[in-house]
């Protein structure tokens, strides 16, 4: 039973308390972007651990698929934010001074 609790502790979908997430917020764009990248990275690691746990039979398929879906959604969102930022940057670079 101890092994199962260790696995569940590592693959829990909410990785940190809300109070810590609020403290981590910073109004600067660079800090927000860094925070988003760290969240995506964390979700990817959780999804990897969840997939391994599902394969080993230590986690249900539904929980594993939820973790994979969350990781996929956050990665797609980050890619869209990057695309929008690059579009804005290119548009600014085309402006005449």
Description:
- With 97 residues, the protein is an all-alpha fold.
- The protein is 80% helix and 0% strand.
- The chain is built from four helices and no strands.
- Helix 3 runs antiparallel to helix 4 (61-94).
- The model has no long low-confidence stretch (mean pLDDT 84).
Average pLDDT confidence is: 84
The ordered string of helix (H) and strand (E) elements is HHHH
Radius of gyration: 18 Å
Q: How many DSSP-defined strands? A: 0
How many helical stretches? Answer: 4
Low-confidence stretches: none
Structural class by SSE content: mainly alpha
Oligomer: single chain
Shape: elongated
- Most strands sheet: none
The portion of residues forming beta strands comes to under 5%
Summary?
The protein is mainly alpha-helical and 97 residues long. It is built from 4 helices and no strands. Helix 3 (29-56) runs antiparallel to helix 4 (61-94).
Characteristics of this structure?
mainly alpha, elongated, 97 residues
Please outline the helices and strands.
Elements: H1 2-10, H2 18-24, H3 29-56, H4 61-94
Helix pairs in contact: 3-4
